[in-house]
Amino acid sequence: MDQPIVLVVVGITLLLFIYLFWKVIKKLLINSLVGVILILVLNLVFQVGIPLNLYVLAAVALFGLPAVGTLLILHLGGML
């Protein structure tokens, strides 16, 4: 008698965990995608001249828009 109740509780807990995990991952993926697109637009359209190497793309893919802003400030300051 107790086994179906335990299975329902475990199932609901698992669905809640998956929902919350997807919610966080979706925000991170969108932020990273927007960051990569923005760094490409800055370089191709506005010809800012930020070097596109593995380190820049990894930073932008991991941190998204804050990384683009930081890289832009570093580039305009002459440190990149």
Description:
It is a single chain. The protein is 81% helix and 0% strand. By secondary structure, the chain is mainly alpha-helical. α1 packs parallel to α3. The longest helix has 43 residues, at 2-44. It is rod-shaped, with a radius of gyration of 20 Å. 9% of the residues are buried.
Short recap of the structure:
81% of the residues lie in helices and 0% in strands.
Keywords:
single chain; mainly alpha; 81% helix; 0% strand; rod-shaped
Overall spatial form: rod-shaped
Main beta-sheet annotation: none
**Unreliable runs:** none
Helix content estimate: over 70%
Radius of gyration, rounded? 20 Å
Oligomer: single chain
Number of domains: 1
Structural class: mainly alpha
Average of pLDDT: 94
Order of helices and strands: HHH
Describe the protein's topology.
Layout: H1 2-44, H2 54-63, H3 65-76
